[in-house]
């Protein structure tokens, strides 16, 4: 068993990337190893983005996922691949200027959508029970209309329990 805590950047892609700047956030990951190379994972995180230019908007999401991590190596340096699926609990807020008669109005919405994440990374030991954990994952949230997608690049520490 083990846990990992990571933080980093979240790069919006597709239509999402047209409207939002680079975001940031982090996650906590629990790993239960079925054997030395394969673990079942549980993840919870938080990521946030701001709108580009004059687009006064904020998008936040809390992914709660389950998945698999497969370690490819047996030495100290351990590359891995991962896949997860679960729910993304998201909120959106935008301030709209309605002009002279309307003033500024804030529009907000929240909801939950199914999504997936695929990626990989590596573990590098920095102590007897501690590893440096670096990962990149492509996330797809199946939102109404077009999907919301982003790439995370995260780094942190993984601890054996």
Automatic annotation (TrEMBL):
SUPFAM superfamilies documented for this protein: OMPA-like (SSF56925)
Keywords in alphabetical order: Signal
Keyword Endoplasmic reticulum: no
InterPro entries: Beta-barrel_OMP (IPR027385), OMP/PagP_B-barrel (IPR011250)
Domain Outer membrane protein beta-barrel per the UniProt entry, residue ranges: 2-148
Protein name: Outer membrane protein beta-barrel domain-containing protein
